[in-house]
């Protein structure tokens, strides 16, 4: 992704990004939401995810490389599709669950989902109990 002219300490360079929105929305929209991949392997645990898988790709000069670094969920940006300089290079299969979990934490949704899961588990237990009661009464 060519992120164009930047301000302050931002770097002007072509960087890989992770698309973090649904494919249905991406198809029709002129923009997409992505998280920058930093070349640094130092991470801030709450908002960054170290890339642990091996993902080969060719850079903008055609040089074969492996994707390395960290996905920085602190650098989520809405980016115009005209800034795309190459096509999709990989699916981050090793990192996707951690991306999902950290996004839920960043947006404050983890506790809501845990509460929902607890309610569902409790209701499932009640359903099982009531089914057993019905069997015993018939």
UniProtKB/TrEMBL annotation:
Keywords recorded for this protein, A-Z: Toxin-antitoxin system
Q: Does the keyword Ribonucleoprotein apply?
A: no
One annotated GO molecular function is:
DNA binding
Q: Name one GO biological process term.
A: mRNA catabolic process
Q: Pfam families given for it? A: PemK_toxin (PF02452)
What is stated as this protein's family in its record?
A: Belongs to the PemK/MazF family.
| Name of the protein in question | PemK-like protein
